[in-house]
Write a structure and sequence with these properties.
7 strands; 288 residues; globular; seven-stranded mixed beta sheet; binds S-adenosylmethionine; Rossmann fold; alpha/beta
Length: 288
């Protein structure tokens, strides 16, 4: 798409987004699921069935090739992640990941010398994470556990990490409380939730294409002030909106073709500082 058409079109959309984000109204599909009414068992059962990114895998689940393709896909889709999180910076430090899934990020920390512990509510994830670590010859303590009630002593970790977890939690505030409790004074929390006022939530609303795992028993998006509020017990909180359009491999058909051929390139012509507040992922770095 020519730049002289793309930039005004995307800016128009962002103006609408800006208006919506500053109004008091909620977008129709952004109401959170009634997380309080969902049992942990429902949430566990969902995540045992819906391993994150499993849909793109071609190799048998649990094989080394399977983990390698999930990792390649993740870091292609989340190209920002190694820029925002220095996976090499925690050598010798005790790092806990809550909701580690199959352990892709945790493995990266572990390979670079962090002393890693990963927990997840779903036993299928933890079984796969153990296989992931084994097949790469990396050691890590991996356990099935509820992040709302961590079985670790106070101040036992230098770093805590939860990427894409709080938005699917029954009780995000309890998980944040536990992360804060097990973190040493001065320790760092690295967290990610979805931005309610993002290009992707708007696109989903306009196109009718549901967001990934929007059908999970608990699902909630956050505005930047809401996310900061959730993290208010930390002494210093920085929120960085990230995750801008990249070509999708998950969706097929006409809409996906238009998205890949036109939307992605048009959006990425807009200078990043203008669209920064509307990134889909709100990354937080917080200090206890
Ligand atoms: C979207 S997946 C993200 C997995 C991984 N962090 C990633 O980025 O690929 C969400 C994960 O959060 C986990 N989860 C949800 N509620 C949890 C809780 N209360 N305690 C621990 N893990 C939880 C789920 O089991 C699931 O594996």
């Amino acid at each position: 798409m020519p730049r002289n058409l793309a930039v005004p079109a995307i800016m128009e959309v962002l103006t609408i987004l800006q208006t919506l984000s500053s109004s008091r109204g909620e977008w129709p599909h952004t109401a959170s699921s009634a997380t309080g009414e969902k049992t942990l068992e429902e949430i566990r059962a969902y995540w045992n069935e819906h391993i994150h990114d499993l849909a793109i895998a071609r190799h048998p689940a649990g094989s080394k090739e399977f983990f390698d393709e999930l990792e390649a896909y993740r870091f292609e889709k989340l190209d920002y992640l190694p820029r925002v999180v220095d996976f090499t910076a925690y050598e010798g430090q005790a790092l806990l990941e809550v909701g580690c899934g199959v352990g892709t990020d945790l493995l990266r920390f572990g390979r670079n010398g962090a002393v890693v512990t990963g927990i997840d509510l779903a036993e299928v994830s933890i079984d796969l994470a153990r296989k992931n670590f084994e097949s790469h010859g990396v050691s890590g303590d991996l356990r099935m556990m509820n992040g709302e009630k961590l079985e670790f002593d106070d101040a036992s970790f230098d770093v805590v990490y939860a990427h894409g977890v709080l938005q699917y939690a029954r009780d995000a505030a309890s998980i944040v409380g536990e992360l804060h409790r097990v973190l040493k004074p001065g320790g760092e929390a690295i967290l990610m939730v979805y931005n309610r006022y993002s290009w992707l939530s708007l696109l989903s609303m306009v196109s009718g294409v549901r967001l990934e795992h929007e059908d999970a028993p608990a699902f909630k998006m956050y505005s930047i002030p809401e996310f900061k509020g959730l993290l208010s017990r930390f002494s210093k909180v920085e929120v960085i909106p990230e995750r801008f359009p990249v070509r999708t491999r998950l969706h097929r058909g006409g809409l996906a073709a238009v998205y890949n051929a036109a939307f992605v390139s048009a959006f990425n012509l807009v200078p990043r500082p203008l669209v920064r507040p509307f990134g889909w992922h709100l990354m937080a770095k917080a200090v206890k």
